[in-house]
Design brief:
This protein is of the alpha/beta class. The protein has helices spanning about 40-45, 110-115, 120-130, 145-155, 170-180, 190-200, 215-225, 245-250, 275-290, 305-315, and strands at about 1-5, 15-20, 30-40, 65-70, 85-90, 95-100, 105, 140, 165, 185, 205-210, 230-235, 255-260, 300-305, 325. The longest helix has 14 residues, at about 120-130. The two termini are about 15 Å apart.
């Protein structure tokens, strides 16, 4: 059977290809994809061969999607044909195979479009989980792309007061207000740090979540966190950072937390470190019970036959694109 897939065969190139679909392996499930969500920062970095990416081509961008199980391998026990699932690792394509450990059942009442956010939701969820936010602590999210918007909502659900969103793009700042940020700051403005201190008892936030991927912002995260605070590196930085560790980390007794999703266990969740599937189930239940809002984050919906054009726009670093869904029906 043939399927369609977005492919990058050299840096900066993207094309829609038709390929032959392989049978699922023994521990794999085959999925007909209904919707996939573009992760702009990560996918742009890999397609453009930026720092801290594999540099291997051809490559197939995308990793967050939702669909219906059409076949199962002989060792699969967790799913059956017809199950609606969210999956991590299937790229932008009409059909794909995935290990059953990287799939989670979609609850009734949650659409394929909302479930397509799951892998990005898990990234934000595990970062907030590792931050160990206590009720009443202040939390600042720097970088209000799709991961940052989710982090704002999840920090608020964890009891952070105030939740502060920081970005340079006005449209992202407005979205953060709709995501529930108690305070938003534009860090292109000269007085933003003074305003931040005013809202945090003159000490800075208890928790700073870095969500830009820009190396220079790492030092800003360390500088603005209060003494004994925590800095969560949620984004994947594309380059080296220059840090005064003595002044901004060591002397302030900061805790620095690496929160890449690869640090989560495949199974056997433990406090602060849940498996992908357990975090996915938690994220999907938050959607089911109306604790998270995603509709305002969807800035683009595109039919798969038009995905090439929109993807090229994303590669130009269009700040207006936050949640971009590809519809594969």
């Amino acid at each position: 059977m043939k399927y369609h897939v977005l492919t990058s065969e050299e840096p900066g190139a993207i094309a829609l290809k038709e390929l032959e679909l392989a049978e699922p392996g023994d521990s794999e499930i085959q999925v007909k994809i209904h919707a996939s969500l573009i992760s702009p920062g990560t996918e742009r970095a890999f397609v453009l061969n930026m720092e801290n990416t594999s540099g291997e081509y051809p490559m197939y961008p995308g990793y967050s999607s939702a669909g219906v199980v059409t076949k199962i391998g002989k060792a699969v026990t967790d799913f059956k044909i017809g199950d609606r699932i969210a999956c991590h690792g299937i790229t932008h394509r009409s059909y794909g195979n995935i290990r059953q450990a990287r799939a989670a059942r979609i609850p009734d009442g949650v659409s394929f479009e909302m479930a397509a956010f799951t892998s990005l939701g898990v990234i934000a969820t595990q970062g907030i989980r590792k931050a160990r936010i206590e009720l009443g602590e202040s939390a600042m999210v720097i970088g209000l792309g799709i991961i940052g918007q989710l982090a704002v909502q999840l920090a608020k659900l964890n009891g952070a007061i105030p939740v502060i969103g920081v970005d340079r793009a006005d449209n992202r700042i407005e979205l953060a207000k709709r995501s529930g940020a108690d305070l938003t700051l534009n860090n292109a403005e000269a007085d933003w740090r003074e305003r931040l201190l005013k809202e945090t008892e003159g000490k800075g936030p208890h928790v700073v979540i870095e969500g830009t991927g820009v190396p220079e912002v790492i030092s800003t995260a360390f500088e603005t966190a209060r003494d004994f605070g925590r800095v969560v590196i949620l984004s994947s930085t594309r380059g080296n950072s220059t840090i005064n560790f003595y002044r901004d980390v060591h002397k302030k007794a900061l805790t620095v937390i690496g929160a890449h999703i690869s640090g989560n266990p495949i199974a056997d969740s433990r406090p602060g470190f849940w498996s992908w599937r357990d975090d996915a189930a938690a994220f999907l239940n938050l959607l089911k019970y109306g604790r998270l809002s995603l509709e305002h984050l969807i800035t683009d919906r595109v039919h798969w036959q038009e995905a090439e054009k929109l993807y090229r726009e994303m590669l130009t670093s269009n700040a207006a694109m936050i949640g971009t869904l590809i519809q594969w029906d």
